[in-house]
Structures are given as C-alpha cells and as structure tokens.
Amino acid sequence: MSTSRQLRLVLVTPEKTLLDEPVRAIRVPLYDGEIGIFPGHAPLVGRLGYGKMVVETGGQQTQYFVDGGFLQVNGDTASVLTNRALPQKDVDSADAAEKLQEAVHRVTHTDVEDDARQRDQQRYRGMANFAKLPR
C-alpha cells in the first residue's frame, strides 16, 4: 500500500474526461452501498450505483450525481467510469421527479422493458434525492 497523501481521481464519461486531478478522498455510491476511497486504498473494482459522489479536495467538497458505471482503484489512482456525472447545480429536482413518475407509471410488456423501467426508477429516484441535498 502506498503512503501518498494524494489520490489521483480520473472521472470519465463517454463524452470526455471531466476530472483528472489530485484529491484528498472520494465517496461513491456502489451498487450495494457507499464506499470511501483514500490514498493507499487496496485495489478494487466495483459497480457504481446511481447517486451522490463526493470529491474532497483540501477543505472543500464537490458533489456529483453519477449515473451507474464502474470504479477502479489501483495504487493511488481511482478511476470512475460513468454514463453521466452532473454537478449538483446542473440537476433539476422537478425534472427528475417528473421522469421518476414517468418511469413508475410506464407499462411494460417484456422482461427487457421491465428491467429498463426498474433502472430508470433507480436512476431518477437517486437524481431526485440528490437534487434535494443542501448545496
């Protein structure tokens, strides 16, 4: 394990690399719970859930909504690969609540459609909850 005091965070979406910088720590939503990553963390690969990612740099915290994906920790680098990463200011609570209601009431006819509906419910429930957090 490394004793470095900085963790390199690489935050990547399909469109671009949003962050590639040293941070103090991160907290990410995994599919089955939340995890905190600090410098020197053991190697890890995890499936991301939908929800709040917190990036700590010095005395500041920045929050992002992450839309599933994967986390890899190797050495002092944490790579977050996600479909979407939105800063809190860019998440609209009313829009997320509306999309959640659409997903809840969507009629499905196949297992594939039902799986997509459940994913959308998780996504927009997480987004609506994230938008309500204090800024």
From TrEMBL:
Any Pfam family hit: ATP-synt_DE_N
Organism, scientific name: Calycomorphotria hydatis
Keywords: ATP synthesis, Cell membrane, CF(1), Hydrogen ion transport, Ion transport, Membrane, Transport
UniProt xrefs under CDD domains: F1-ATPase_delta
Membrane topology note: Peripheral membrane protein
Assembly description: F-type ATPases have 2 components, CF(1) - the catalytic core - and CF(0) - the membrane proton channel. CF(1) has five subunits: alpha(3), beta(3), gamma(1), delta(1), epsilon(1). CF(0) has three main subunits: a, b and c.
Intracellular or extracellular location(s): Cell membrane; Endomembrane system
Keyword 4Fe-4S among UniProt keywords: no
ATP synthase F1 complex delta/epsilon subunit N-terminal domain: residues covered: 7-85
Gene this chain is encoded by: atpC
Record function comment: Produces ATP from ADP in the presence of a proton gradient across the membrane.
GO molecular function per UniProt: ATP binding; proton-transporting ATP synthase activity, rotational mechanism
Any one cellular-component term (Gene Ontology): proton-transporting ATP synthase complex
Name of the protein: ATP synthase epsilon chain
SUPFAM superfamilies to which the protein is assigned, alphabetical: Epsilon subunit of F1F0-ATP synthase N-terminal domain (SSF51344)
Alphabetical list of InterPro entries matching this protein: ATP_synth_F1_dsu/esu, ATP_synth_F1_dsu/esu_N, ATPsynth_dsu/esu_N
Highest taxon listed in the record's lineage: Bacteria
Membership in a protein family: Belongs to the ATPase epsilon chain family.
Classification via PANTHER family: ATP SYNTHASE DELTA/EPSILON CHAIN (PTHR13822), ATP SYNTHASE EPSILON CHAIN, CHLOROPLASTIC (PTHR13822:SF10)
